Automatic annotation (TrEMBL):
Catalysed reactions, semicolon-separated: 2,5-diamino-6-(1-D-ribitylamino)pyrimidin-4(3H)-one 5'-phosphate + NAD(+) = 2,5-diamino-6-(1-D-ribosylamino)pyrimidin-4(3H)-one 5'-phosphate + NADH + H(+); 2,5-diamino-6-(1-D-ribitylamino)pyrimidin-4(3H)-one 5'-phosphate + NADP(+) = 2,5-diamino-6-(1-D-ribosylamino)pyrimidin-4(3H)-one 5'-phosphate + NADPH + H(+)
Organism: Hypholoma sublateritium (strain FD-334 SS-4)
Organism ancestry: Eukaryota, Fungi, Dikarya, Basidiomycota, Agaricomycotina
Class of this enzyme: oxidoreductase
Keywords noted in UniProt: NADP, Oxidoreductase, Riboflavin biosynthesis
Record-listed E.C. numbers: 1.1.1.302
SUPFAM superfamilies reported in the protein's UniProt record: Dihydrofolate reductase-like
Recorded metabolic or biological pathway in which this protein acts: Cofactor biosynthesis; riboflavin biosynthesis
Protein name: 2,5-diamino-6-ribosylamino-4(3H)-pyrimidinone 5'-phosphate reductase
Record carries keyword NADP: yes
Length: 252
């Protein structure tokens, strides 16, 4: 990152809600890059580098402004991200991985072992299954901190950790600001819970086509206009070929 300070519009977006985070959760920034036809990945989830160089630098700055960065397990498996930006502040990597599918060879763990990244936290559901316990021991031996997230009810879809419990668990452990990077299911889950304080979307001038992966807002919520999450536009910036739009949530 050649520039010595982050782009000013990032601070304006993040500080829009200047109150301290609630006791039950961190401040949440949701950010992702999408094509003109609203796809965040290619067919079969193939990783697409949608952001150009300048908006990638903006995303790197955004990472340094948060205590932790969260991704879903499919993103961790598919993209094997590093989620850090040495030598700047290293945010805590967090993987939402109910069934502990994260491989011990992933870059997040290799970075931690090589002292170029912080210890990854892996959020899972409690289980006494012997194969699960073996995977848990292997991840812990490789350096991960495995954190069990309580399920709220039997109605929780299988493999889904409840977003409020995820956020509460992170806040309890000292995370005051969280950047959520995707993928599609995680984006949908966080939007559905109306816990997104700042939303930063990079739109790249490309079309991916209908086989690409987009995020879906749950139909049962969007049918009722009263409960749609609302955002206020804060800023639009052109970075190279990309358009970066930032929004802040509007209280209900
Ligand atoms: N363009 C971008 O900015 C961007 C950013 C990040 C990722 N991506 C792309 O997104 C794709 C992955 O997206 P994805 O939707 O397949 O996977 P994802 O959102 O990365 O991970 C979803 C998985 O996380 C687990 N999970 C546990 N609790 C959850 C909850 N409350 N809500 C949602 N998921 C929960 C589930 O795993 P189990 O199945 O084990 O239960 C679920 O299948 C990749 O292709 C990646 O390249 C794009």
């Amino acid at each position: 990152m050649a520039d010595p300070t982050p782009p000013t519009f990032l601070a304006a977006t993040l500080l829009h809600h200047s109150t301290p985070p609630p006791a039950t959760r961190p401040h949440v920034t949701l950010t992702f890059a999408q094509s003109l036809d609203a796809k965040i990945a290619g067919a079969q989830g193939r990783q697409l580098i949608l952001s150009g160089k300048q908006s990638m630098v903006m995303t790197h700055w955004l990472r340094t402004l948060h205590d932790a960065i969260l991704v879903g397990i499919n993103t961790a498996l598919n993209d094997d991200p590093q989620l850090n930006e040495p030598p700047h502040h290293l945010p805590r990597p967090v993987v939402v991985d109910a069934r502990l599918r994260l491989p011990v060879t992933c870059k997040l763990l290799r970075n931690f072992q090589g002292k170029t990244g912080r210890r990854p936290w892996v959020l899972c559901a409690a289980s006494l299954n012997s194969a699960f316990l073996e995977r848990k021991s292997a991840l812990e031996a490789a350096g991960a901190r495995v954190i069990e997230i309580p399920l709220q009810s039997d109605e929780q879809p299988e493999g889904r950790l409840p977003v409020p419990s995820i956020l509460h668990g992170l806040r309890e452990r000292g995370v005051n600001s969280l950047m959520v990077e995707g993928g599609a299911r995680i984006i949908a889950s966080f939007l559905a819970e109306s816990v997104v304080d700042a939303l930063i979307v990079t739109v790249a001038p490309v079309l991916v086509g209908e086989a690409g992966v987009g995020y879906q807002y749950p139909t049962s919520l969007s049918e009722n206009g009263d409960v749609l999450p609302k955002f206020k536009a804060i800023h639009t910036e052109t970075l190279g070929q990309d358009t970066v739009m930032s929004f802040a949530s509007i209280p209900w």
